Structure formats: structure tokens, C-alpha cells
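Dissemination and training. As part of the outreach component of the grant, students in the summer workshop were shown how a complex can be specified as a set of sequence lines and then modelled as a single object. The example used during the hands-on session is reproduced here so that future cohorts can follow it. Participants entered these lines:
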Amino acid sequence: MKKQDITCDVLIIGAGFAGMAACARASELGLKTIMAGNSSQLYFASGLFDFLGVYPLDPATLLTNPETGLDLLKKEMPDHPYSKTGLKPILNSFDFIIDYLRSAGLEYETSKGRNISVLTAAGTFKPTFLVPETIKKCQMIKRNKNLLIIDFKGLTGFSAKQIAARLKKKLNSIHTLSIELVPDKTVLPPMHLASMFENDVFLEKIAKKICNCGCQADLLGIPAVCGINKSLNILTKLEKMTNLDIFEIPMMPPSIPGLRLKNAFEKQFAKQFKKKRVQFLSQTKIRSQIINENEFILNAVNQNMETRIEAKCVVLASGRFQSGGLYAHRKQIFETVFNLPVHQPEHRNLWHHRNLFEKQGHLINTSGIETDNVFRPVDTNGSIIHKNLYAAGAILAHNDWTRLKSGSGVSALSAFTAVNDFYNSHRPSADNSNYEK
Amino acid sequence: MFDISLYISLSLALAGILLQIFKLNKTSSARHKLKNLKFNIISGLFNTIFQIKLFKASRIRWVVHFLVFAGFIFLLLFHALDELISMKLFSYYEPTVDPYQFLRNFAGFIVAVGCIGFLLKKFYSAKSDQRIKGEYKNLFSIFLILLIICSGFMLESSKIISEPIFMEMVEDYAGIDEDSGLDDLKVFWAKNYNIVFEQPVVSSEELLEEGRILNEDYCLYCHSKISSAFVSNILSDGLKKTGSVLNHFRADRYLYHIHYLLSFLMLISLPFSRLFHIFLIPLASLKQQADVKTFQNRDIVFNSLTLAACTDCRICSDVCSVYPNFVIADNINVLPHYKINAFKKIISGAHLDVEELNRIKISNDECTRCNNCTDICPSNIDLQSLWEKLAYILNQTVPEAACLPDTLQFAKEHDILFSPTSFKNCVQCTICTNVCPVVGYCSNSENDMTPQQIMNLLRLGKKKMAAKTQMVNNCLTCYSCQESCPSEIKVTDILIELRQAGTKC
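and obtained this result:
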């Protein structure tokens, strides 16, 4: 096995959305950054950025203005990551990420301070804060519109008829079209379909089929498979060919908008890698760590490389149970990298409520790492564990993001705040001033 | 002249065959193992006569090939060797009597159709995939056969319209002159047998009737209706306008020389062109295929004599499991027909530099030993053993450092197939299927299962079923799935191990 030694300012453990956001921020600030982890978790991302979709926890009240929800949240849940900072840093972090992705060629609609209802593959509407440009036209769905929804035979998890059945009451006229592409193929994985869309001849074929289907439509919903790179260009081309307004409908994972997100981040990191600012150790696990007063020494291992990393600061963005950031033992929940104290219910019996659909949710979903106001993990007494150790993303405690629809917001906010805090308190010394913006 | 050229070409052909056998036997490194060979006579004979394996491989190719084969064999036995065979077998044999006249035309016609089919196939297959460049160098034999057939038809039709031959025949067999009704016969033959006379004959009902009676008396024993020679009949209609010129120069004599000289040229070229497969495919078909036992005993009994039976038909590349590798990675070296050419180069002692050898070796290592090529090879070449042999030769010539690590060793150390930890984390998220280039390329019939489905089979404990799937053999080992798996399952390693373990697991 090969071995290498590297030093850096910031080490980010985990390559999910929080890790990516932290890495983006750190490299923009001119810090020498290493990210270790498995970026494939981003295949599970929908590509939509949620801020706060539901609060109070009553499914009937979908928030249109997240600000009102946030005020209430601050009062009722003072431990929630949002309650530590307030509104402004959250919006700032979103703005930063959108700018960063735009420079990688992935366009998001700029925020209007309100939630948007996005049509999902189940035919329901989901509140979210920011959407890719390819999805934004779903806001045009109105009663007087003629909506056409297409699906592809073999593309599992997406049925135009199912969506139409759910939307029937809301719209006057809705049509569906099922397109068969390859007769011999019963399985058509979304990524292969998306790469087919990058071919102009294929696009013309699809456009012809849509034009010839004989339904009078002015708005077209298409599964989110319009190309992997330059999806907005492809969608605009298709719009020109068909003379329709087109929007994408996000699908079940593995989702293409998630893949676009992953590609956009990795493309930017590759640019930064040339300037020796960012290094991404993919498929890497942290095996052992030594914590000194001013630095961390960690051993990172992947299939053919063993890396010894010296870092001034660590951002722990390793996620929860599925990505292995937390491990649920029979009696207790552990944090897997540093063995930090984990906020959790007292007893295993309290992890889950008897009722699966209980309004207040399950207590295990609020477990995680307790932090101070700049997201540094604290022990049970409330004192910080290390001045340069931060936690970000899903691993944070009191954060039931699946129910509050606040996943991306918490990740972006905590990553952004953590990196900013390290940067402000440890400004690179004079000899490193060329790093600065 | 005929006899001299016949003996010269016969001796040349014999010498050529001996030379080829000597040359091939010298390079055949497994000669000392020839005694281990078992013969499978029945299937060998069947394959020689009916080309069963070609039938299985491609119906269209079989039809084309069988037209040429059957037609040519008939012409060889009953037309070229008529003095030896036809005359002895059939007491009333005459080349101008039905059914012989009709059958000769028919056989010539189907050979010509077959040859044109060959050329069309070659032309269109060269067009279909630009990356497999069409090679026209092997078309010599097809053109030669086509020329022989064409010259034969031309010869027959020039004889039909020939006045001099008519006059000779009248002199020899009828013995009639102008007084005893030669003009009547001329009228009849000009009308019914397409003969072109220098001085045009004036026909009338009476003369025709007279001619018909004379024809019945003298000619009908040896001359059937000309319409049964359906190709030459049409040709002679076309030649009528220039008939007098042709008759003046005795074109039939020239065509006769051209016809048999072309045939002798084919005889000479037999051992030196692709036509040699006529002898080598029966030889290869008679040899028994390598089975499990021969591999267990490590008797790689590959005889390079049979390699010369390869007709470069490229059916092996069509069915090859690593064909997606060629399409996706644009690596032509992995295709069997390409490797056969490389092997031919190596055993002929041509100098290849290390880089080239290395490329061949790496490409040969891509082979999944799925046995598809051996199953389908119409020439019945034991290709599976050839790849083993190639790997054996290259292992000795290419330095060890360039070799890939032994995956079997890895399997023994990690026991990846039998420890549930290696696949229990799978959440069936289908990412491996999504990034798999083979799934993207192959249709359902070519690739039955996707990587994620194989992981599910393993989770269910169906190892044997998983090992038998097409996917295991189709895998390019590009490691995309393993790189992208969010649960960090070693998908590619597992597929490779399944392939290695085969049905033993």
C-alpha cells in the first residue's frame, strides 16, 4: 500500500452536502483544504435546497414564508441549529452556495425569501426554498393551464399516469404520454437515459414524439433526466423544438439533480486542486486520530493509499447512521471518528415511538452532537472539546431535518458558520497572506 | 497445351500443400502432443459437408456459403471431371443433353449468386462499423471463382452462336450437304438454337418443317432444347448482334483457354489463399474439442495447423463477451479476430516490440473465458485453448512487472464471496446499475442481470445463480460501480471473484 503525508489548514471528514459546502467555503477563503469521504451519498440528494418547509410540526401547514416559522422555532426549540444563529447567516450561506455552483455551470434560481411548491414524482407538492433553473417552471402550474406529463417505459419510479391522477382535481386539463425508447430493454436506469439526452439527434426524436402526440398542451413536465451536464441548455433546446414551457420533476434516488450537484462541486474542486488548495481523498475512511493542542494528526485509508494528515482544524460532516457518522450499538449511540459524546435518549426503548406516524416524531432522529453557537462540539458540561473541532450537517443534535424539511439549510448554515469561525479566529499569518481573497 | 498446364498446376498445387503443412507444423508448438488428440469423426464429417456450425452462427452466411459450396462441388465432379465421373456413371452422358445441360447452368448460377452475396455482405459489414475496417485483401478467391463461372457461361454461349462449330458437327455426325438439306437444318437451328450464320438464312414454314425432320434424325440424340441452358441462352441472345465477328475470330477457342487456365490458377492458389480452409476446416472439425478434463490436466493441446482454418469471418467478435469493452473503451485489441491475427504474427516469428506484446497481453487478460467464441466458430477452431496458449506464451515473453496482480490470491486472502459483510450493507439503491457502462450498452438478451441485482442474489444466498449470470462475464472491470457505491461494497471485486469461482461456488 502506498503512503503519503499531507498537511492542511482544514480537514473535512465526510463528502456529503455539508462536507461539500464546508470544502467550498474553506477553499474560497483561501484555506488549504482536504476532504476525505465518499461523495456517492450525494446521489441520494434531490437537488432541491430546503430551508424550513414545515413548522409547527403539523403536516397541514406547509410554510410559504420560512421566516415566520423560524421565529416560532427559536422560541420552541432553542437547541435547534437554526436557533443558534438567526436568519441572516442562513440566507448568506445559501447565497454563497448558489454563487459557487453557478461558477461551476449549475444554475439555481435566486432566492425570493419564500418557499416554492415543487411537483414531485409522487404527484404531491413539496415546499422548498431554492430550486435548479430546470425545475423552476413548475410554479407555472395553474388551473387554466394545459399540462402534459411524459414518462419513459423502463424508467422505474416515475409514472405520468400516477402524477396525473393526483393532479386531476387541481387542473382543468392534464395529459400523459408514455415514450418507448428501446423495445428490447425492460430496465432503463435514469443515468443512462440522462446521458442519452445529451445527444441532439435523440433530443429531436423526443421532441417529434411530443409534438405528434396530439394533445393541446402549453406546459410540459418531464422526469429529471434532461442531461447530466449543461442540463439547462438541453432543456432550452427542447423548449425551442416543442414550443412548450418545460420543467423537470425530481425523481426517486439515484437522482440526476443530485448527480449534477456532485459533479458541479467536484468540478470546482478539481479547478482548486490545480492551485493546490483542495485535495479530495475519495472513498477514504479515518482509521485513527491524535488530538494535540494546536493540530490534529489523522490516518486516512482507502483501497490503495494510506494518508497521514496533519490538520489545524477538522470539520466533522460525517452524517448519521447510513453514512456511518453515528453508529447505533445495542444500548447506545456512538460517534465513529472521535468518539464524541452523543446527545441521545436515555434508554433504547425511547429511541422510537410506538406510533410510526407520531406527530412529534421519533427521539432517535434528534440525537447527534451537541455544539456551541459556532458549531464546535461540546461535552456534557457544555465546555468545548477542542477549539478547532467543528461539526456540520446531519450529525448535529436536535435536528429532525426530514420532518422539518430543513436538511440543506442546516448543512449549509453549519458548514458555512464553522469555516467562517475558524477563518476569523485563525487568520492565516503574514507569510500565508497570498491565500487571502 | 491443356495437358501440360494441367500437370504443371497439379504438381504446383501438391507442392504448395506440402510446403504449407511443413511450414505450419514447424510453428505448431504442440506437435509432440498430437498423440493426445482424440478424433470425433461423425461430427467432423457433418460439419464438413453441411457446415452445421456456420448454420448455427449465421443463417444468411450459411445460405451464401452453401450456394457456392454445393454449386462448385457439383461443377467440379460432374463437369470438370466428367470424363472420370459422369461418363462412367451415366451411360448416356452428353454435356448438351438434359438434365446435365440444365444442372450445369443451375450450378453455375447458384455459385455466381453466392459469390455476389459474399461481396455484398463484405461491402455492407465494412460499412456498418467504421472502427472494424473492412479488408478487401481476402477477396481474391471469391473474384477468381466468379471469373471462372463467368468465363464458363461466356464459353457456352459463344459455342451456341458459333457457325464454325455447327459446320464441324454437321460434317462429323450428319454428313449432309447443301443438296441433301443443309440449308433446311440451318434454318431450323438459326431459329431454335440461336446460331448466327454469316449469310443470313431465309426462313419459311416449309424449310422449317424439313429442318425439324433432319434435326430429329441427326441431332436430337445429343442436343436438348437450348432453353434449358437458361443462363447461356439469355447470354447468347445478347451476343447475337456481334455474333458474326465473334465467329470470325473463333472467340469460343479463346474462351475455352481462358476458362481452363483460370481453373488451373485456382488449383495452384489453393494452398496459398483463403481457399486452403477447404482442407483445414475438416481437419479442425475432426479434432475433438478441449473439455474440462484437458484443462484440469493442463494439456493445452492447441495445434496451430487448425489456426490456418480461420477465414477471418469475425463471427467470434460478434458474440464476444468483451465486445462492450471494444465499443465503450474503443479498444480493438480485445476482439478475438484481432487477437488471432496477433497470435499468427507471434508464432510466425515476426519481431514485435515489448510495448506491442504488452498491449496484446493486457487485452488477452480481458478475456473472460466465457467460451462463446469456441462455441460459435464456424471453422471449429478451439479458440478457448488458443487464448490459454497466448497467455502462456506472453507470460514467458513479457516481463513479470507488467503483469496484473493475481486476483485469485486476493480472493483467498479476503474470502469476499463467503463473508456476508462484503455485501450485507447493500441497500439496493441502483447506483451501480446506473453507472455501469455494460448495462447502458447491452440489450436485455445480451445482459440478463444488473450489478445491483447480483448483489441482491448474493444477499439471498443464491451464489450459484449469481455465478451463472451473463453480467459476471460481461463485466469490463472498469470499477465504476465500486467507486460510486455509497455503501462501499466492493462490487467489481465480487463480480471478478464470481467469474473466477464459476459454478464451483
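The radius of gyration of chain B is 32 Å. Students were then asked to discuss how this feature might be tested experimentally.
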